[in-house]
Amino acid sequence: MVGGVAYRRPVADIAYPIAERTLANGLRVVVSEDHTVPTVTVNLWVGVGSRHEPAGRTGFAHLFEHLMFQGSRNVKSGEHFSALMAEGGRLNATTWFDRTNYFETIPKGALELALWLEADRHGHLLDAVTQENLDNQRDVVKEEKRQRYDNVPYGNALTDVYATVFPDGHPYHHPTIGSMEDLDAASLEDVHAFFRHYYGPNNSVLTIVGDIEPEDAFAKVETYFGSLPGSAQPPPRDVHHLDPLTEPARLERLEDVPNDRLHLAWRLPVDSDEDYLACSLAFDVLGGLSTSRLVQRLVRDEQSATAVHAHTMGFVDGVSLGLLIIDVAAGTEASAVEAAVVEEVERLIAEGPTDVELESSLAETERSWLSSLASQEERADLICHYTLLADDSHYVNTLLDRVGAIGRERIKTAAAAYLQPRSRTVVSYLVEEQEAAA
Amino acid sequence: MSTPTVDIPRPDVIPPEPYTFPVAERRTLPNGLEVVVYDVPGQYVHSVRLSVPLPLSREPREQEGVATIMARTLDEGTETHSSSEFALLLERKGVALGAGASEAGISIDVDVAKRHLEYALDLLRQTLTEPAFPAAEVARHVKQRLAEIEQERSVAAQRGAIELIATFFDPDERSSRPTAGTRDTVGAITRDDVAAFHAREVSPVGATLVLAGDLDDVDAFAAIEAALGGWSAPEGWEAPPEPVAARTAANRGRVVLVDRPGSVQTELIVATPGPDRRVDDGWAPYPVLGFVLGGSPNARVDAVLREEKGYTYGIRSVFRPRRRGGLFLTSGSVRGDVTVESLDILLTILDGARQGFTDVETKQGVDYIAMTAASRYATADAIADEAATLAFEGLTTEFTTATLRDLAEVDPERMVDAYGRFADGSWTVIVVGDAAAHADGIRALAHPVAQDVTVVTG
What we know:
heterodimer, A: alpha+beta, Cytochrome Bc1 Complex, Chain A, domain 1, 2 domains, 6-stranded mixed β-sheet, 5-stranded mixed β-sheet, about 20% strand, globular, disordered N terminus, B: alpha+beta, 17 helices, about 40% helix
């Protein structure tokens, strides 16, 4: 007999149409038609990110992404932005550990222009790259780093987390933004070598979501991308396996910050592993919901913390990351908060989640997943994500069923395998006491 | 080595049809609540937005921030449920409920999977009609707000925003002080203050509830009326007065430098009064002006400061309407050692725009605003947000459609007229950075506002 809320079909049916084709040059193309709005999203994921950067070139994948807007064989510097915006396009690109993505949402009548512009830069970037553009975008990226990391309180905390959780030389040891020294060292030769090595249809996925029939979309992609050679050398995946830490790792910084903040991190299994999903649910139960154990205990009851955040980052190369971030309340010792976290982690490992906790976590997962899929932009991005990194173009339709099937026991055993207190990394940003002003 | 491919000619674009915002169905409930419903097929998360117009000037001076604390504690316990129980009621069905206060009033946002709409509406009812404001929960939110104040002061952009309103608005105006209150006022707020403010001010009369989502098989009005039809105005409630524009400070045209010794970057904010959406010549030119000046890497400001000089990751210009009056803001960070030069360039560009705009940049800006509308308003939450924002101003989303149509009539002449009406050079300039390194250089700039430079700390 099955009974209890956790065993009923817990989530909504999702059935976005998915059509998939691979061009002769290796480009994987996925189309999800949606005629509710007369727009289309073009989203390209390239299988290169900061994890592929060699020593001395951290930050390069992201700097390269900036150069993709500075012109290509038939496109002037800045024209990719201006040409699409003038036709009602909203566009950008981002770089992360495992990938780089490029995307635009345009009125459907501008789809071919978008494909032409993308094919020109993904096929013929090097015709237009100049030292001047490289120097300019290097300066822009350094300002991005100052704005988002160096000139904000706690701005380098995650950089410290990566460097403490993952050993020197591991692909995830350094952040995507890189270091100032390595950005300075980037040369035009690096740009050419990087493009030749990683950029090409056989290391990319192109997704189109929106007001178009799949066959029409495939034909248009063939027109603009079909002649590009499958010249990339896609790197191997999942070769830098890391087990959980066997004893805690710690880093403490005294900084000019408004309050003490603790970052507790664990090594998790890779994104495609069911245990990664189980660990994600465990982080929800610990700190990701307003009814989570740490929120209830630290924020509501003891009031030793003013905020608790939990999230997981799924990676493909041997390990992922789970993170709790806790703002310590004034007058409370950070060590006392850390001890309470350890107690709650131990209790979760011993007892697993309750039915109600699992129900809440699934309900929150459902709403946030449906919200993500509600826009063409995000739907296209998620389809590209799981097609490139998990070889599963239907993932958007099946995730909730997979999460719903995990169950309490799997969460408990995954927590026991990956979230042991001895396996934690603790990065503390503590308030540096200022000398009283004279 | 070049790849052996044949270049394909650049394809033509077929422009989209003119965009029309989704059409709402509207009803006023007997209790005075205006209900606005959008059926958006394919949107399986429903977005509910409640706008309760309420000027912050209704807050007692010594309790500023009470509207925010009240909004944040609406779901922290009701007559029948404790704070923790209520949180569980929300989360078990994945109901995301958030509330806050702004210059315009109280906003409550609810997002919920379609099949739990009625359930979510009933929880919304409880927050509005049965909030208990337990003393311990109010005290906790006061404490959290005090921590948040310290965090805001530590972030350059937020520190700059606090200094901006203090410099820009007349000190007697509520708008010159933070919406969510200051250390002095928030620390004194009690549970009884919150309960009294709620009982005095929060009413369905004049409020608007927006629902957007896939309504196939949903009787939206019946569900809303069943949940909120019994919500009634507080005894003795009086409608708030018509909003008036906040007065600006007599000496707002000056530079205030917030000292951050050793800062590797400098945050710049340049502001002057702007219009609200009811401006005489129409709102349509203003989003275009924001785009042309500071809305993309090729806009006038970033074409120089980012793409030519490499001094910034990006600087943005935006006309920000309020219920009455508004602001024109340009802001962003620049490398510390080029602070003075960057400010000089920025003011030169912003002043120089009074000379006019080209046909090409006007057309590009108009087309961007007009033709992105279909994708900007494609989701239930974006549709509901737009309707709820306009409701505070007594407008409907017919305004959105009419403004988008009016873009066809925006030409360079109308652009320069619209810009010149507000951008008269009397800029309020906030600089958050190393005062010792930059103060003298700023004072040496030729611009009139640079002749009055004040350095503040903390």
